[in-house]
Amino acid sequence: MAGAPVAGGSKPTKTMTYAERVRFREPITTDTEATATSDQFTVVRRKKNRKPKNKKQHLTSGTDSGTETRSKVKPDVLQKKAKAERLKKIEPPKTFTVGVGTSTVGDVKKTLWSDLLKKLDAPNIVSTRVMPKGDLQITPADKATYDALKRISSERTDVVQNTLRKPMVMIHDVDVTLTGEVLASTLAIQNSVLGLSSEEAIEGIEPSFKRGPPNKETVHWVCLVKPEVMSKIAGKKVFLGMSCCRITEYFDYNQCFKCLQYGHREKFCVSMFTACYHCAEKSHTGARSNITSVC
Q: Where is the composition biased (Basic residues) (predicted)?
């Protein structure tokens, strides 16, 4: 019977629960530990089996020493940088704008084609598009046609080569009393950390228009900037007057609500059909659409 006295006058043995047997275990006695008694116990603590974090490390070779060093760079960051390098190598299409004026589009095409034949025997044109304002946009297919159109643009005033559009930034929460004439110079004077001189700021930052409600104390200025200035101010916080403003890259896309295409507004749309704003088909409008939206 548990707990009953044992013959010989010895004390009864104490029964231990399973939890006590797990927590306290008797040490293994060896020849050198002959003095150890049954009253000595060892505290056993369970260690958590934590799985090591599988962090991907990419090898980058040093430029000076030539040895390989490990740098923790995320794969998506490397993909974005590689994509940016590929896009830099792609040249944008070179186009020319031909003014129509009071003449018709057909007459302007005939005159331009005759001038091209005088400069080149077989000119190649990718596309001839009528712009919303009525002018013609010519895209050459090869370098020979491009050189011929460039020579024509130097002889005729109605043929102009289109230049690349400057990047745009938005300066948020600018004091309404700060005008566009002093915006660039004030930015350079109050923010010497950017490393931008007053001359560079005036030449590289061109205030275009304002955004935001006109009845507030602050407005958002949208400015055209040069690429070398863009890298210095984009994503930064600057001081302008008595306020701290943040600068972000600005994108302005026009979408037509008639044909749902980008690049123009409904006022200048030349499409003969109205696209449905539910399924984008041209056979009906959104009021008669029975199809669920697809985008």
A: 44-58
Check whether 69 has a pLDDT greater than 90. Answer: no
Distance CA 126, CA 95 (A): 10
Alpha-carbon distance values, 34 to 10, 19, 24, 25, 30 (Å): 22, 28, 20, 17, 7
Check: pTM over 0.70? Answer yes or no: no
pLDDT tens, residue by residue, 76-126: 778 878 877 887 777 777 889 998 888 888 999 999 999 999 988 889 998
Q: At what angle do helices 143-155 and 105-119 cross, to 10 degrees?
A: 110
User: What is the Cα–Cα distance from 28 to 36, expressed in whole angstroms?
Assistant: 9
Q: Give the model confidence (pLDDT) of 127-158 as tens digits.
A: 888 887 788 899 998 889 999 999 999 998 88
Nearest to 156 by CA among 205, 97, 211: 97
Instruction: Work out the pLDDT band at 237, boundaries 50, 70, 90.
Output: very high
Per DSSP, 151 falls in state: H
CB 168 within 8 A of CB 205: no
**8 Å CB contact between 138 and 123:** no
Strand order in the sheet with 136-140: 125-130, 136-140, 96-98, 159-161
Domain extents in the chain? 96-161, 168-250, 253-295
Report how far apart, in Å, the C-alpha atoms of 17 and of each of 5, 10, 21, 23 are: 20, 22, 6, 10
Distance between terminal CA atoms of the chain? Answer: 80
Where is average pLDDT lowest: 24-38, 65-79, 145-159, 273-287? 24-38
CA angle centred on 203, ends 200 and 207, rounded to 5°: 115
- Rounded CA gap, 240 and 201, in Å? 14
CA distance 180 to 51: 59
Q: What per-residue confidence (pLDDT) applies to 116? A: 92
